[in-house]
Amino acid sequence: MSKQSSAMLMTEGPIAKLIVRFALPVFWGNLFQQLYNIVDSLIVGNFAGDEALAAVSSSGSLIFMITGFLLGVFSGASVVISQFYGAEDRENVQKALHTTIAFALVSGLVLSIIGIFLSGQILRWMDTPKNVLPNSTTYFRIFFCGSVFSTVYNAGAGVFQAVGDSKHPLYYLIISSFTNVVLDLIFVGVLHFGVAGAATATIMSQCLSSFLVIRRLAVSEETFRLHFGKLRIHGCMLKKILRMGIPSGIQNSVIGFANIIVQTNINAFGDVAMAGCGSYSKLEGFAFLPVTSFAMALTTFVGQNIGAGRLDRAKKGARFGAIACALSAEVIGVIMFLGMPVFLRAFSQNPAILDIGTRQAHIECLFFCVLAFSHACAGVMRGAGKAVVPMAVMLIFWCVVRVTYITIVTRLLPQIEVIFWAYPMTWSLSSITFAIYLISGRWLKTKKIQEA
Fold it and tell me: Which positions ≥6 away from 190 have C-beta within 8 Å?
């Protein structure tokens, strides 16, 4: 490795220090990503009104349902690259890198077509209120025009993650987040373009971040340098990536679909409920800062150490990361539980919206520790090449159990709190299951990628 490299081989050295060293830049990057996510709602709510706020704030479930599959596939690519990198297999690192970026370009274009043509129909299936539907449709169609930028950035960031470099994605997120803020203020606050301006600002910011990540890969002197002339999909390598990534992709898509059903039930309570729950969900993203940080660090740490044959070291890292993840998320949960009535005022001054968001926070926030533990365990399993396990656990509890509970109980007790309680209940069930599997050690009985 060159002296200037930010890549990090995690097969030697103090475990806790390496995991935290990787997780901290991811944490700060996710903080700016969260700013990137809430700024649309913040500016739209203050400059364009409650109906526009409802349109933007309720976007998360649909976007995740459509994009979640590809994000799962890219997580599979990260696992493949991390194991090859841990084994110091330069040739296969190169093949996996170029296959991943080429696949991102193709899939991004396909995603744009799907999102542009189907988002309006999906919003109608979701029973989106008629007064919100035009704004929601406009937002989604413009947003999906830039899908290729999102897929390329996430693929490139996954490459950096695989080689232990969590700093450069942080730099690019900071730049794109500030760009998004400035463009939102211009398009929405000054030019009054409403939700169309918010969506356009997001696309332009994503374009910038994708350019930066590709440029960095292209000028790198490491084994993961990108050569545009080598961009192609290697069939054998794509099979390895898909074998690791499809379970996570299916998990993301089905959970996204389940969240669409949940959002449909929220929509039935009207646009005030949509705005209140949507605003809360933006703030809830702060709880995911340590969750995503440690989950990504664990995937990389476990992947590299299994690739190097260091199974005992992988086990120690998994134990430390899962505990640290749960504790840090709970701290944020307590802060949000106490401060939510104040935090929500940044989005709206409507007392009804503030009441809905606060009620949701007071039910869910103190259970963030079990949410974090589940995601940390899922990160460990993916790094070990056991992506089918978190897929099965989360599909059962976060989809089947959650949707069944909401569908039945809301008919018997038509109160929005019924929906809110679905989350801590299913988070707890999945955490218990993951804990049993993690303690059993069965996740360590796996073949390395290069042997598969």
Answer: none
